[in-house]
Amino acid sequence: xxxxxxxxxxxxxxxxxxxxxxQIFKSTENLAAxxxxxxxxxxxxxxxxxxxxxxxxxxxxxxxxSKEAKRIAEAAHKKATEKEEDRKKFWTKVIAGGLVAMVPxxxxxxxxxxxA
Length: 116
Hints:
With 116 residues, the chain is mainly α.
């Protein structure tokens, strides 16, 4: 008796995919180029983040300086206002003192001319 090979149902074969070494090499070159571009973009993003950090620090410094300038200006304004008030008080006292000194003399002179 001769042995027959077992008969299995025939399955349709899927189409074969053939990749050459050249195609693999080109794909890895493309991948390497893409990675380089990505690294370059990440480097630029990092540089921009550093610049943004520096800018943020300069903004905080400028904000502090403006607040300090405002405080100094307000103090100077207050001092100038107080000085102006003192000057007005001084002249009010000078004028009032002058009037007090002049009124008795004015009354005397008016009475002299009125009676004369």
